[in-house]
Specification:
alpha+beta, Cytochrome Bc1 Complex, Chain D, domain 2, 2 domains, three-stranded antiparallel beta sheet, 5 strands, 31% helix, binds heme C
Amino acid sequence: MLFDEPPFRAYAANITPDPDTGIGKWTDAQLAKAIRTGVRPDKSIIGPPMPIEFYRHISDSDLAAIITYLRVQPAVKNEMPKSQYNIPLPPSYGSSIKNVKAPATSDKVKYGEYLANIGHCMECHTPRNDKGMLQLGNLGAGGQVFKGPWGESVARNLTPHKSGLKDWTDAQIAKAIRSGVDKNGQPYKPPMAFDFYKNINDADMSALIAYLRSLKPQEFAGKI
Ligand code: HEC
């Protein structure tokens, strides 16, 4: 898949076990390092839209499960072109990571934050400044515009503000995330990956919603 944006033309890499065009020759440790710290075995840095800032939080056991899952996919021979970046890539996304433990599920807000990180919700639902950096002081306020074959969509405000999810019930929020339809049954547009979020189980959804309700309430950062 090609992501053709002003700052980059990025081609999503082949992550099937094909040894020549995919990740078949990478060790588990190399894969873990690439996913969690954005460094390939050849030491090059993985650029956007891969949301490494959020994937740094993936726990060891969840990362091991993801790698196991990648390894059992059918190998597909498909050489992808190299991505081109018109912006400087960061020299790194932070220090190397040894061990990450997920928060206890009993701490709903913290565990919900963990899920939001690995579901990289805030990558889209937080406004960016004119250099393309996320404005973390406005976490969840929405406003990023996504253009594509669907026309245009705007990431919504996920904070507990009137212009966000304040007046939504838990059931309405869960339905929006899992089924991709709004309170009135209208379908949302891409690029939110509703098809992948539809399997979030009830306990995880309840933690995710508890986390969204704990965000600082903020005015919607975009226009619809
Ligand atoms: C790739 C970008 C992207 C990611 C990642 C993403 N979203 Fe979205 N989301 C959007 C866009 C864009 C819309 C609005 C679509 C439209 O208006 O048709 C949306 C809509 C929503 C809505 C509907 C809210 C409203 O006010 O109508 C909710 C709730 C939501 N997202 C929650 C989440 C959560 C929780 C996650 C992480 C599990 C997430 N999103 C990940 C882009 C994204």
